[in-house]
Write a structure and sequence with these properties.
312 residues; 2,3-Dihydroxybiphenyl 1,2-Dioxygenase, domain 1; 6 helices; Glyas_Fos-R_dOase_dom
Length: 312
């Protein structure tokens, strides 16, 4: 896809009222590494990832999604995307320029169609990272992010039009109709998905583990630590990836996964999967049933950050 200006997902930034508990969770039981912390903002890296950080936590009175950050190949591509967005009447929060976070770089921010803050950057310094060893049950990298939207197809079309995302697969339900679109910017099955929800919110953030054993060991560690397991362990059909979903201390859903499918973009045709079929939700049949209570947790709270840029 030569016209794509985005390359990959960099990080997800969260504002949280209970900052200390959140930091203990992500830098402790979840297995991320605190890179730096200053004045109620912490940057957390995945040991196997070249990204400077994959999660940023900010102390705030209201819970919100601060921003989602994507990479671009070069400053030229950053400038080209900014020009394209302005021509398409997308509201920019900042003009392309120096990025003042760990690793630096060149980038800018803008609002998506639902009011989320999106950041795109290039020339970010590569973090010294390492190979995750056998039985080491910590995240290798950030895998993907899933977003709730009250208008599933409006959001999908915006990302296709302005950011060159491609549809990979769709989940459909006999009562709900279309329930989720899996979207990609590379041969990875999805770096983002859009879920039909009652309001704009974060659905979940997913972290890639080294393999099945590490994924299971990590899931067990979080269960033993007493955090709420929402759904799993199991294996989805769309994406063919494993899943176990948990709630962080402030009610955001986070996922351990592994073996997310890669696709041949030249030959791929999107599937429509009937989500009421048990094998679509979980090929293995090991997860607790997907029901309204599980779905409700993924709706999350109404995002208070829509069309309000984060202060930092």
């Amino acid at each position: 896809m030569s016209n794509r200006l985005l390359t990959h997902l960099r990080h997800v930034d969260l504002a949280v009222p209970d900052y200390d508990k959140q930091l203990d969770f992500y830098a402790g039981v979840w297995g991320l590494t605190k890179v730096t912390e200053d004045s109620g903002i912490s940057f957390l890296a995945a040991e196997g990832s070249p990204e400077q950080y994959v999660v940023r936590l900010r102390r705030a009175e209201e819970k919100r999604l601060d921003l989602i950050s994507y990479g671009a190949a070069s400053p030229r591509d950053v400038d080209a995307l900014a020009e394209r967005l302005m021509a398409g009447s997308v509201q920019l929060i900042s003009q392309p320029g120096k990025v003042d976070t760990p690793g630096g770089g060149y980038g800018f921010r803008f609002f998506d169609v639902d009011g989320r803050t999106i950041e795109v950057s290039a020339d970010v310094e590569v973090r010294q990272h390492r190979r995750i060893e056998e039985k080491e049950s910590i995240p290798v990298k950030l895998s993907h992010v899933v977003l709730n939207s009250p208008d599933l197809n409006k959001t999908r079309e915006w990302y296709e039009t302005h950011l060159d995302f491609s549809l990979t697969d769709t989940l459909w339900h006999p009562r709900m109709g279309e329930a989720m679109h899996f979207m990609r910017i590379s041969n990875q099955h999805h770096s983002m998905a859009i879920a039909q929800g009652p309001h704009t919110a974060l659905h979940h953030v997913s972290f890639e583990m080294r393999g099945i054993d590490e994924y299971m060991r990590g899931s067990g560690r979080v269960i033993r630590a007493g955090f709420t397991k929402v759904w799993g362990p199991g294996r989805h059909t769309a994406g063919d990836n494993t899943f176990t979903y948990f709630l962080d201390p402030h009610g955001n859903t986070v996922e351990y996964t592994t073996e997310l499918e890669t696709v041949d973009e030249d030959t791929w045709h999107p599937h429509v999967y009937d989500f009421s079929e048990p094998d679509v939700a979980d090929q293995w049949g090991t997860a607790n049933p997907m029901n309204e209570l599980v779905a409700k947790e993924s709706f999350n709270d109404v995002d208070r950050g829509c069309f309000v840029a984060p202060p930092v």
